[in-house]
């Protein structure tokens, strides 16, 4: 389950309630995404709070864009979060789709590439391995809870990025706009083949989609309103055009059926993305997940 970090008018009480409810529920992971030029909470600051508010659930960044951060400071922050959570952190890294976020922090948009991401991941791996990345008395710490650092996922929908990420990632944190199960299965096959060719264990295969539970028309409108707010870098008329077929909207039985379809293609995990901060949506999904076992 993803935190409602892209919803308006958030406060600490709402975020804490969601985190604790996710931790209490049947969910395997608690996820949250990153934006800069938006009013969502800072991802790395939130990591510390989530580590304190939860005890059980895996904490998954979906995703952090490493080119928006100094890689050594980012590695230090993530290692701190891994330590505070007792080794419950999994890091999703992605290139990011918005130039405005790069410009907001003075990052070079020319680094918005697979190579730019991989270069920074390599520096972070060195920090987590305890190497000195500069002439210093001690290496940059703290050491992460797990030797070598937290598991890494690549956030992408592209086969080329998946293949290149096999060199450093432990799995895939994908997304599906239209819930095309067959297409997602094809990308999973690409990942399986790339990891096998790299001589690595089978990758962790995850995907995500927006959801709204309720009567069909109201639920679909909830997704639409969320997309118009979230996709504010895209002209509204284009968002309106794709909104009817983006994400998922419906009742509990229909959600259970969709989750079974993704399970059938070997999906290890689905990171559900809420389109409301209403805790009732979370509780209803928790019941669905619990019934599925």
UniProtKB/TrEMBL annotation:
Q: Keyword Oxidoreductase, does the record have it?
A: yes
InterPro entries the UniProt entry points to: Luciferase-like_dom, Luciferase-like_sf, SsuD_RutA_monooxygenase
Luciferase-like domain residues: 12-266
A single Gene Ontology biological process assigned to it is: alkanesulfonate catabolic process
Q: What keywords is this UniProt entry annotated with? A: Flavoprotein, FMN, Monooxygenase, Oxidoreductase
SUPFAM superfamilies annotated for this entry?
Answer: Bacterial luciferase-like (SSF51679)
Q: Which GO terms describe its molecular function?
A: alkanesulfonate monooxygenase activity
Q: Which PANTHER family match?
A: ALKANESULFONATE MONOOXYGENASE, ALKANESULFONATE MONOOXYGENASE-RELATED
Which protein, by its recorded name, is this?
Luciferase
Species in which this protein is naturally found: Mycolicibacterium fallax
Source taxonomy lineage? Bacteria, Bacillati, Actinomycetota, Actinomycetes, Mycobacteriales
């Amino acid at each position: 389950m993803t935190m409602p970090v892209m919803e308006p008018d958030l406060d600490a009480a709402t975020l804490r309630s969601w985190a604790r409810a996710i931790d209490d529920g049947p969910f395997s992971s608690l996820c949250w995404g990153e934006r800069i030029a938006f009013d969502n909470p800072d991802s790395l600051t939130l990591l510390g709070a989530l580590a304190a508010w939860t005890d059980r659930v895996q904490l998954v960044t979906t995703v952090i864009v490493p080119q928006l951060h100094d890689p050594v400071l980012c590695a230090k922050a993530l290692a701190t979060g891994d330590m505070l959570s007792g080794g419950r952190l999994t890091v999703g890294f992605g290139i990011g789709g918005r130039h405005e976020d790069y410009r907001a922090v003075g990052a070079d948009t020319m680094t918005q590439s697979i190579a730019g991401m991989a270069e920074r991941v390599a520096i972070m791996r060195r920090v987590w391995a305890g190497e000195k990345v500069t002439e210093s008395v001690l290496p940059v710490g703290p050491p992460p809870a797990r030797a070598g650092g937290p598991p890494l996922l690549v956030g992408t929908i592209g086969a080329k990025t998946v293949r290149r990420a096999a060199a450093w990632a432990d799995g895939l944190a994908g997304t599906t706009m239209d819930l095309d199960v067959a297409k997602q299965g094809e990308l999973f096959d690409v990942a399986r083949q790339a990891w096998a060719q790299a001589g690595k264990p089978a990758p962790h295969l995850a995907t995500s989609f927006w959801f709204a539970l309720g009567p069909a028309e109201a639920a679909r409108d909830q997704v639409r309103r969320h997309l118009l707010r979230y996709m504010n870098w895209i002209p509204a008329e284009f968002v309106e055009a794709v909104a009817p077929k983006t994400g998922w909207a419906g009742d509990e039985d229909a959600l259970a059926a969709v989750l079974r379809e993704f399970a059938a293609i070997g999906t290890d995990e689905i990171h559900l993305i809420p389109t409301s901060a209403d805790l009732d949506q979370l509780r209803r999904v928790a019941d669905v997940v619990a019934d599925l076992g």
